Amino acid sequence: MKSKTSNNLYYVCSLMEFIGRETKNKRCDIVNLLGEETIRHILEYADVFHSEQIAAVADRFIEEYKIEKGLFDNVENCKYNVPDYWSIGAVYQRLIESVCKVDLVLTLIEVYNSWISVYIDDYNIAVYYMTPQYIKVCYEQGEILE
Predict the structure, then answer these.
(1) Average pLDDT over residues 112-125
(2) What pTM was estimated for this model as a whole?
């Protein structure tokens, strides 16, 4: 059974994915626009936010932070089955937890702004589909391993 913190992180990561898809922005841009303080707030109250539809929560943050439409559309560009936002949220949640040493939110910001985010968000190469251990080792090694 997952801990409350783990479940909340899963929700935060899924919300980042949802907002990114809605606004056609890279996920790192969403994380950076919201910032550390807001992400901490979402993480702390994720169980409350989760009681609402994720689209309604996303709309509030999009409006409050004036997140404009971008040009990044990894869903439209996907040639195969598109993973849902919960699945991608789980990939990020597991990676963040596995590499976190001190602060979960700072690790989240670091991971979303790292090189591996480009690979996780490219649904045509299916890194998101690899095992959590493989993704963690790639992240730590700084490259996709063969």
Answers:
(1) 96
(2) 0.95
